[in-house]
Amino acid sequence: MQEVSFRLDGKIAFVTGGGRGIGKALALGLAQAGADVIVVANTKDEVTVAAREIAEMTGRNTLALCCDVSDPAKIETAVNQAMERFGHIDILINNAGIGFVKSVMDVTAEEWSHVMDTNLRSALLLSQRIGRQMIERGWGRIVNVASVSAGLTFGMLNAYGPSKAGLVNLTQMLGNDLGRHGVTVNSISPWFIKTAMTEEALKTEEFREFSTTRTPIGRIGNPEDLVAPVLFFCSESSGYVTGQNLFVDGGATTFGM
């Protein structure tokens, strides 16, 4: 009988949006579980500090890569640099994401495209590029960070919700295509999490009250709340789970009248 374990010793993980917030927490959690981590973000200073701190805290090997994942050429360069350093990638965390508050009737084509390119197209391109070498090695784990907004309508989030809905569907499609090769693909959908992206909104009493009263657990989530679910999806013990979307939302999506 196989021992149940969430350890990732000897694995190499590639985490986008890893310079802060959810991505940094996930990168740290993967390193604490034994993985060497490639931390990818669009801000050089931020990603450099994050990778150094994770290495100091865990003793794992880390690599900081500055990359705008909305740019296919930069994605290719980043993956090549990671492969040159580590030789292969076992785990891909597609976490990079952006959003802004604006009516869907007012969002421009350029704004829409930028959100889609960052949140959705990057996940496709990285999954294709890294997934091919996972197929060659017969093992891999891809975890996409989606959102409850993939299935719930929040006014003024315009392109963000559709991009995350697409990410959940992409998870299912990739899970179907890659499963026979030993590669699983799953996603998590958080509710509101305390990050730089939600910091301004959480400063308002009205928004804090809305977020907490609609959450059965009764509090706003922290980035660390997402680590254990991701570790499960990345581990050997989740080998029979693919194409799934897990709500990590304090029960918010079950909230009744």
Automatic annotation (TrEMBL):
It is an enzyme of class 1 (oxidoreductase). Keywords: Oxidoreductase. GO terms for molecular function: glucose 1-dehydrogenase [NAD(P)+] activity. Coiled coil: none annotated. Its EC number is 1.1.1.47. Gene3D superfamilies: NAD(P)-binding Rossmann-like Domain. InterPro entries: NAD(P)-bd_dom_sf, SDR_fam. Belongs to the short-chain dehydrogenases/reductases (SDR) family. This is Glucose 1-dehydrogenase. The lineage of its organism: Bacteria, Bacillati, Bacillota, Bacilli, Bacillales.
